[in-house]
Design brief:
Blueprint (H helix, E strand, L loop, with lengths): L10 E4 L9 H28 L6 H30 L3 E3 H34 L4 H4 L2 H27 L8 E2 L6 H7 L5 H34 L4 H9 L2 H22 L4 H25 L2 H13 L1
Helix pairs in contact: 1-2, 1-10, 1-11, 2-3, 2-10, 3-5, 3-7, 3-9, 7-8, 9-10
């Protein structure tokens, strides 16, 4: 096949989740509801934290940042999929595809790093409670979020650069609902061996280091909790980590599902289903996990409801 000239006219076809026309309206309503719940839930978390002075602490500052990142992560892929369903079109331009790749890795990596920062926050809160406000002062909190953002930006630009260097053939069908990098590499006519190595190395570094940080934080937390004499004290200490631990398991569990399904040959359908969980369901559930398990968030949300 002849390589395709990369110009502004190049378009890809996003095959989506199903070709069944009778199923499209159902999927559209379902994913629209998921997206609206995601935006509404995360916006309420941000509004509750910003409006209540009692929530102006490091933990809630990081939670607010995570909510912003979750909205961006979901907004990178879902609106385009909904538009394609509504217009009965499967096309996405080359420029839009590159933008999706860039923002997908920006917000995905941001979520990854913020969960690590939040694990560090729980470690300091439980193991060094008397020095919590001193260690995690506002300046350090802002720097941790900014460093997470710039690392995520570099990660996204590396992936953007790799995809922009690819040459594509006449086959431009992507068996996915967004521009997934592994699928784009499969479509490329040019040699992708270096790109595959780079993605593998970035995945190892970007996955291993944050997960190691989370494991180490929880190792110190559990060690500290076991030294608490009373059962009530142990429960109270560990309950402050419950929401974060639930989100961590959900995020990395679905992320692992995406990785395993994409690495198996001829498993495009399984990869799409895993990606739905990763990119849509997780950002939607996160606000509910934090609001249902956190009394302070509940009180702040109740105040907002009373005001309205």
């Amino acid at each position: 096949m002849e390589p395709y000239n990369l110009t502004g006219a190049l378009e890809f076809l996003l095959l989506g989740l199903s070709d069944d026309p009778d199923l499209q309206p159902i999927l559209f309503v379902l994913f629209l509801l998921i997206y609206l719940l995601t935006v509404l839930g995360n916006m309420l978390i941000i509004l509750a934290i910003s409006s209540d002075s009692h929530l102006h602490s490091p933990m809630y500052f990081f939670l607010c940042s995570l909510s912003l990142s979750d909205m961006g992560f979901s907004s990178t892929t879902v609106p385009k999929m909904l538009i394609n369903m509504q217009t009965h079109s499967k096309t996405i331009t080359y420029a839009a595809c590159l933008s999706q790749v860039s923002f997908f890795f920006l917000f995905g990596c941001m979520d990854n790093l913020l969960l690590t920062v939040m694990a560090y926050d729980r470690w300091v809160a439980i193991c060094h409670p008397l020095h919590y406000q001193v260690i995690l002062n506002p300046g350090l909190c802002r720097r941790l979020v900014l460093v997470s953002f710039f690392i995520s930006l570099m990660d996204s630009q590396v992936h953007w650069l790799m995809v922009s260097q690819l040459t594509f053939c006449t086959n431009k069908e992507i068996p996915h609902f967004f521009c997934d990098v592994p699928e784009l590499l499969k479509l490329a006519c040019s040699d992708t061996s270096i790109s595959n190595i780079v993605i593998f190395l970035i995945g190892i570094i970007g996955g291993f280091l944050p997960v190691s940080g989370i494991f180490y934080s929880y190792y110190k937390i559990i060690s500290s909790i076991f030294r608490v004499p009373s059962l009530h004290g142990k429960y109270k200490a560990f309950s402050t980590c419950g929401s974060h631990l639930s989100v961590v398991c959900l995020f990395y569990g679905t992320g692992l599902g995406v990785y395993l399904s994409s690495s198996v040959p001829n498993s495009s359908r399984e990869s799409v289903v895993a990606s739905v969980m990763y990119t849509m369901v997780v950002p939607m559930i996160n606000p509910f996990i934090y609001s249902l398990r956190n009394r302070d968030i509940k009180k702040a949300l109740q105040k907002i409801v009373k005001i309205t």
